[in-house]
Design brief:
Blueprint: H1 3-15, H2 22-38, H3 40-51, H4 55-81, E1 84-86, E2 95-103, E3 106-110, H5 118-129, E4 133-137, H6 143-156, E5 162-164, H7 169-176, E6 182-186, H8 189-200, E7 206-209, E8 215-218, H9 224-236, E9 248-252, H10 256-271, H11 287-295, E10 302-304, E11 308-309, E12 314-315, E13 318-320, E14 338-344, H12 347-355, E15 362-366, H13 370-379, E16 384-387, E17 401-402, E18 408-409, E19 411-412, H14 415-420, E20 422-430, H15 445-454
Parallel strand pairs: 3-4, 3-6, 4-5, 6-7, 8-9, 8-15, 9-14, 13-14, 15-16
Antiparallel strand pairs: 1-2, 2-20, 7-18, 10-13, 11-12, 17-19
Helix pairs in contact: 2-4, 2-6, 3-4, 3-6, 4-5, 9-10
């Protein structure tokens, strides 16, 4: 279907008013939940095909989190949609003030390949809940998942309500030429800039969920064994192909050796002596990405790992030590299973290192000192993160998730998703039984005195 024809269908459907109906939105969310359960096995097989994800990881990190978000949204949708009364200034007596939530209209959701189920459906849940019509563009780099999602959404939702456009760069460009009412993009900084440029031609608001080099700071007071365990989990989940994965470690030099020793043990504990032979260890998404990550490895600085299987597109969990800011691995987001470890003399030096660079999507701090915790959270800007853990801050519907600066703009999850895809209208309802003459000309001395009394 031509993009223009598709847009006309979505626009006509939205203008019919069906999505304004609360019962319709709730039914759509329920059908989406039922479809996700029915397609769970197909999605798991597709995730295995595209990314080598195990069934357990596919449920934990994609399907399960999506189901949790669906249930949360259904539970709170009526509350989120309710008009909210606010205080009215005395100068506007006698009146009432309230806010009304309205959908933007037809929205575009462009999702990435690394979590192709979660990062497609979570923003879609918010868009549907807010009453929009949606065009969904999955990533061409995860074709198996894209095909399953297209069938699943076509079966669960009406065509004019939600449509899936499959394909690659040509389809992306065609969609970005259209006038949408909102665009939600998850992906890299380079494409994110293009999306924002295209959106600006139509003054279309955007949410950009990007990435960057998310640091992990570990000080001498941290529980090093536990820090290594949680760091290995967060870094090597999905083979490091996670936008909030710890990209590099800044560790106080006095505990570096202990940390490296614990990391080596944890890699064996979680992935085995030979990770490349572990059926639950995933793969790089494609050959281009595989070659790029391998090219970042300085084999003279290997602390452990470094093996690969070109045929299977697999790279073993790898740690580099003695890394400096000038090394190739520190020049761009790694997005793979390579962990550079840099040493610092203090936490303040680590904070200064992070502040000199683009604001990261996530930051992880391992410390046993409350003063250090407060200092880092107050003085370093980042999208979100964890203290004494990694990754898990995005696995909740109770808080928003998003970037800042170079790592993105806007947020979603739970109520934030509903707010992202809604416009809040501010309304003053003035009653007619009284009409104070203070604001009308001619202005007199007594009027000015009264205005000064009320407006201050």
């Amino acid at each position: 279907m031509r993009t223009e024809v598709l847009m006309e269908k979505q626009r006509t459907f939205f203008e019919s008013g069906k999505t304004q109906n609360m019962a319709y939105r709730m039914r759509a969310l329920e059908r989406l939940e039922q479809a996700l359960k029915a397609y769970e096995q197909e999605l798991c097989r597709a995730l295995q095909e595209d990314l080598g994800k195990s069934r357990g990881e596919s449920y934990m990190c994609e399907i399960g989190l999506t189901l949790s978000e669906l249930r949360y949204m259904k539970q709170h949708l009526r509350s989120f949609s309710r008009d909210r009364r606010v205080r009215t200034p005395l100068a506007q007596f006698h009146a009432g003030s309230f806010t009304v939530q309205e959908p933007y209209g037809v929205v575009l959701i462009m999702s990435p390949w690394n979590y192709p189920v979660l990062l497609t459906l979570e923003p879609l849940i918010g868009a549907i809940a807010a009453g929009n019509c949606c065009v969904v563009k999955p990533s061409a780099y995860a074709p198996a998942v894209s095909r399953v999602l297209a069938r699943m959404l076509a079966e669960a939702l009406e065509e004019g309500h939600t449509a899936v456009v499959e394909g690659g760069r040509q389809e992306n460009q065609s969609l970005l030429e259209q006038k949408f009412d909102y665009i939600f993009f998850t992906g890299g900084v380079k494409v994110g800039k293009l999306v924002m440029e295209k959106a600006s031609a139509h003054l279309t608001p955007v949410t950009l969920e990007l990435g960057g080099k998310s640091p992990c700071i570990i000080d001498r007071t941290a529980d090093i064994r536990l820090a290594a365990r949680r760091l290995v989990f967060g870094k090597y989940l999905n083979c490091g192909q996670t936008c909030v994965a710890p990209d590099y470690v800044l560790v106080e030099s006095c505990v570096e050796e202990e940390l490296l020793s614990c990391i080596r043990r944890e890699i064996v504990r979680q992935y085995g002596e030979h990770p490349l032979q572990n059926p639950s260890w995933g793969k790089m998404i494609n050959k281009k990405h595989f070659d790029r990550v391998l090219g970042m490895m300085n084999r003279k600085k290997l602390a452990c790992g470094g093996e690969w299987d070109e045929k299977a597109l697999k790279i073993a969990p790898t740690v580099l030590r003695g890394v400096t800011a000038e090394d190739l691995v520190m020049q761009e987001e790694i997005f793979g299973p390579v962990l550079p470890v840099l040493t610092v003399a203090s936490v303040e030096e680590a904070c200064a290192f992070v502040r000199k660079r683009p604001k990261p999507l996530a930051l992880y701090l391992f410390t046993g000192d409350r003063k250090t915790e407060k200092h880092v959270l107050k003085t370093v800007s980042f999208g979100g993160g964890c203290v004494n853990d990694t990754i898990i801050h995005l696995a909740t519907s109770q808080m928003g998730f998003g970037g800042v600066g170079d790592s993105g703009m806007g947020a979603y999850h739970g109520k934030k998703s509903f707010e992202t895809f809604s416009h809040e209208k501010s309304i003053v309802k003035k009653y007619t039984w009284l009409d104070l003459p203070l604001r009308y000309q001619p202005y007199s001395g007594i009027k000015e005195k009264l205005v000064r009394m009320f407006v201050r």
